[in-house]
Q: What sequence folds into this?
């Protein structure tokens, strides 16, 4: 298909390495799928995820992209223009802006204004600390004006555990920003302004069930700080990037891989986000998901720029998988 996207299911393990996987006694993800009579192929694509780059004010231990203050890969206005044009040609129900810290990308307002009219639901990921301070007031006003859904990282309601993952004092700043967002109507019932939280485990273990975690976060945040939110999403950490380095340095890598495979839930495969999502990198190329972006595995070979896409992958098209997919398919799944 000229200008279309071609993905091939292949079991390479750029983030893990076959030797490590074998040492941990873990079978390739593609083999596990086959053994359970499953295949990971595309359904209807409804979501466009836009990764604005790897610059971040934090250096979180669990980051699969190794984002941080020293990274200089950020999305240019030219790439943003190409993405807005792409979203106009192929309407998506959801557009999800992520990073790094998108708040630090100078032209983010241009991207938000361009994408907001094109999808019923526009989401912006935030680590909360990057949106604090007077310099971000206009960004918050823009989000309010366009009813942008804010999705904030908030790993734990225990400040010392959260700070261990994200850096000293980060929780205190995050709480101050959450209070401010509540004050502006975000996360407050009846305003229609959605504020969701995302929690990752603070170590080499799987998250607890989403329902019980949401209950605990809701109670803790209200009781300790008077903060409200709409939904909590819990996700397993993906063994790529800085998290993989941490696993290796602490001798937890093999054990974590075994934990992920033991938690493999074949019934989660049908709901995995990559079935309905396309991801665009900071420089405008297409990936099946943000983890394949971290692993350097584009959706097509050679990789294809959004400007050159003539058609989206049809239902049934294959998705490139790696062993890190076990993190998505563990427990209730990364959906
Ligand atoms: S890492 Fe997750 S989202 Fe990406 S292809 Fe694998 S299962 Fe799908």
A:
């Amino acid at each position: 298909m000229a200008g279309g996207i071609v993905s091939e299911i292949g079991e390479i393990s750029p983030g893990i390495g076959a030797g490590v996987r074998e040492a941990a006694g873990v079978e390739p993800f593609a083999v596990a799928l086959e053994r359970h009579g499953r295949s990971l192929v595309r359904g209807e694509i409804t979501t466009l995820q836009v990764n604005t780059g790897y610059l971040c004010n934090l250096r979180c231990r669990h980051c699969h992209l190794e984002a941080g203050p020293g990274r200089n890969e950020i999305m240019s206005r030219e790439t943003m223009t190409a993405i807005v044009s792409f979203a106009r040609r192929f309407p998506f129900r959801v557009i999800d802006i992520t990073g790094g810290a998108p708040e630090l990308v100078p032209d983010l307002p241009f991207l938000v204004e361009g994408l907001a009219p094109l999808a019923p639901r526009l989401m912006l990921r935030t680590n909360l600390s990057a949106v604090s301070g007077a310099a971000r007031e206009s960004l918050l006003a823009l989000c309010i004006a366009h009813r942008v859904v804010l999705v904030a990282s908030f790993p734990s309601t225990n400040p010392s555990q959260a700070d261990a993952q994200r850096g000293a004092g980060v929780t205190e700043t995050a709480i101050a920003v959450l209070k401010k967002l509540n004050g502006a109507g975000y996360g407050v019932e009846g305003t229609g302004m959605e504020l969701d939280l995302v929690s990752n485990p603070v170590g080499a273990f799987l998250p607890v069930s989403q329902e019980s975690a949401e209950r605990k976060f809701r109670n803790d945040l209200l009781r300790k700080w008077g903060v409200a939110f709409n939904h909590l999403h819990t996700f397993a950490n993906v063994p790529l990037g800085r998290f993989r380095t941490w696993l290796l340095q602490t001798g937890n890598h093999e054990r974590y891989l075994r934990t992920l495979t033991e938690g493999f839930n074949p019934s989660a495969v049908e709901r995995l986000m990559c079935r309905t999502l396309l991801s665009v990198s900071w420089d405008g190329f297409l990936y099946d998901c943000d983890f394949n972006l971290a692993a350097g595995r584009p959706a097509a070979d050679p990789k294809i720029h959004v400007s050159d896409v003539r058609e989206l992958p049809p239902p049934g098209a294959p998705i490139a998988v790696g062993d890190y997919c076990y993190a998505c398919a563990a427990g209730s799944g990364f959906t």
User: Anything to note?
Assistant: The first strand starts at residue 47 and ends at 51.
